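ARCHIVE RECORD
Type: protein–small molecule complex
Small molecule: pyridoxal-5'-phosphate
Source of inputs: curated submission
Record status: active
Notes field left blank by submitter.
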Amino acid sequence: MRVAKRIEKLPPYLFVEISRKIAEKRARGEEVISFAIGDPDIPTPPHIIERLCQAAHDPANHRYPETSGLTELRQAIAEWYEKRFGVALDPEREVQPLIGSKEGIGHIALCFIDPGDAALVPDPGYPVYSIGTMFAGGESYFMPLTAENDFLPDLNSIPPRVANQAKVLWLNYPNNPTGAVAGLDFFEKAVNFARKHDLVICHDAPYTEVAFDGYRPLSLLQAPGAREVGVEFHSFSKSYNMTGWRIGMAMGNALMIDALMRVKSNLDSGIPQAIQYAAIEALCGSQDCIGEHNAIYQRRRDRLLEVLEKIGLRAKRPLASLYIWAKIPEGYTSVEFTTRLLDEVGVAVTPGTGYGRYGEGYIRLSLTIPDDQLEKGVARLAAWRPS
Ligand SMILES: Cc1ncc(COP(=O)(O)O)c(C=O)c1O
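STRUCTURE (tokenized, with ligand):
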């Protein structure tokens, strides 16, 4: 049997590799403390689960859903966007529910990338932007995110030939893996750049609700003209601890939303309706859980930063996202450093190069680890000295 070349070209999915290594150690009876995966450890809030259970009992929700999602869900998303960002969306034309934002991020490449086209993709970055581009037959032009530029791409340094040939500009703020945030001035620059080079912007924004120290992350759609050139991907996963339920959304330019809907309606049959009702409850019910979760993450962030500093790893205090992006000492690659940490103290982190070559020299630590595990990890790190 011969698989298609696009499958052969795939790098192993980063977390699968890490999970395999951790599983091997655990099978040998070793306790591994994992800061490696960004999957909230806190359960979905009870009022959301209640609504899901109720809806699951209703036979109307046992049948095929529509790809376009429930009208009530699209309306709830539009109302939430207006309340949260002051952006008024047309729920019929500018909102598309997704089976988790990853699904939409992967599929949108099929809407805008023809074989031979290019996408501008941040490096380090969430791997699905470039993999989706490759599946559609396109090439990624990687935009370095460096500490010198506050982990924002330097759009002016992209050669005009590349920018003119590209079709899509991928952005992600608050950023995974760097924890960086973007201001309105950056989004405005990106919109002008997209207009100038006839690009569409895909802004991946699942972390806007995970923020600290009173900071409120922005939406791309708050930038004037953004809706003419872009869509924003959002998710219930991190805001409401709903990673396992698989539900997200895309909002913005009506033509882009329509193209995504057309691809999706040919490939999937929508989101189970009971989960859509749970998502409506998440958006329309009490938002107290967001502040409560953020207080927990903020405390974990500060605890981890303290110990990282002690062992000589420098990291900027992130204002949002679930991640600390820490610079490792000279003399190691990030994979070597990650392997040493795992082998010597049983602490798992993600090597920066898992997100692209500009991730070299960094590791990522996730704040989605239960407090008792965090304390164990902190104790192990505090007692360790990288030579
Ligand atoms: C930057 C980024 N985008 C998208 C996703 C996917 O989220 P979802 O659970 O909505 O598919 C993740 C998940 O970790 C992420 O980090």
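CURATOR ANNOTATION: The first strand starts at residue 33 and ends at 34.
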